[in-house]
Amino acid sequence: MPDDSIPTTKKQGFATRLSHAGRAGTHVHGFVNPPVHRGSTVLFPNCEARREGAKHRFEQFMTYGTQGGPTHYAFEDVIAEIEGGTRCLVVGTGLAAVAVPLLAYLKAGDHCLMPDSAYGPARNICEGLLKDWGIETTYYDPTVDEAAAAALIRPNTKVFYTESPGSHTFEVQDISAIARAAHARGVKVLMDNTWGIHHFMPFQHGVDVSIQALTKYVGGHSDVLLGSVTVNDEADWQRVRATGSLLGQYASPDDVWLALRGVRTMAVRLKRQEASGLEVARWLEARPEVKQVMHPALPSHPQHALWKRDFTGACSLFGVVFQPRYSMEYVMRVIDSLSLFGIGASWGGFESLAIPTTGFITRSAGTGDFGGPMARLHIGLEEPADLIADLDQALATLPG
Question: Which UniProt keywords apply (predicted)?
Fold first, then answer.
């Protein structure tokens, strides 16, 4: 739980809360940043104290290294603050943050609903572990309304998984409508909120469990792997925390410390990268080689009104659909011609990235055809004018 001594309130601004959450305070003697605490064995003064400690396994209480320590607790408080939740479990990767709640709420014979636009490795969990364990998954059109969402739910449906926007094609989901339909049937709503960190408050829209790949904007420097699972209800916390413990999920305290340091500047980075991303997206939208830019903050996006209703801003990851006259080979030539954009997975760091997406994503519910070859761009902290110049020279490699 957040430390009552931390002088933060919901009335204070986001940057202020990021600067002060998860540390001792301003009127204390000592270093500003919490130190790195590493350890496996936790010592107790006597046997009775150790026995009593077992009663606190759902609290921020040191019992063994895998249950975390002060560095983890400080970071979990910060992420819970950002997400608007009460409890947070930090795990080793974003994919682990996807797996833990799925395994917490599903068992053999259950049914899971997964958006067709979901992060590829999340689909792999469904097609691998969950299928092997007798759990069925249905992939649904991410743009379903409340009635369509309700129609998808079966008597054995236990999880309605959401990801908004989708990781490659950026469909914005009506989370509130999905949550109403799901909760009317006793179904838990899980959400990958990585794109919407800070800009979308999941628990205000009915989400039960919010998932973050902290590798992205929280770490911010492309040098740590971390994930988080945040809840707003004690029963959900006990379910998620117990599953994480059973699976031995643990995050390196050194990575946690780096992310705790990185998150202090996230407000500034998010604001700058949002502005730069939109500048580049608008420039691309005006190019004759481009059929569509899949950025929810652009008025041309099919779910722009929904984004505007639910989000306070945008991150700097978006998709580009090229004109159908170009082959995917030509699009890959464009990406190969870029000098300021790295070619690699992930996003949210200080560096710009570009990857082809057509041929690299899986769909099974009839979604994802945008009428041309596609790529995904992440805009970093470089000057947008330099990125635009780089894109301009790369687009010149296209015929015609």
Answer: Lyase, Pyridoxal phosphate
